[in-house]
Amino acid sequence: MRKKLRVAAYAVCVRDGQLLLARSPIAGGGHEWVLPGGGMDHGEHPNDTVVRELEEETGYHVEVTGLLGVDTTHHVLPWSYRRKVDHHGLRIVYEARIVGGELRNEIGGSTDMAAWHPLDDVPGLTRVGLIDVALRLWRERPTAGRVDHSLK
To answer: How many domains would you assign to the chain?
Structure first.
């Protein structure tokens, strides 16, 4: 079975009680909200990854203000030619603040919209689980830099 490691960096940007999110199309139709960020390029520092990805997906220039923690996923997924891939995702979560740029939607990328959402409205959004993990890291600031997934 093929093994794949994907390292990605994401940012929690909260301003005036609102969270910055990007919207991503779902296979088969529909959309889900995601945390701005994405895959690290070979040789790139994760801090630089999150700055680059935020600009690409939202139009904003950000300053990383802290490392909130790390989360991982591990799944066996369908791949091609009736084979499966053992996928391990390493997700580095930063806190960042907007220092420039203007909100805009990404063109020709993995997301199609960027928007601010009141923190109280986030639980009602169709969203990826990383958003909940990242908000727990942001609120709880665990010294170990990880959250216990068995706790809600």
So the answer is: 1
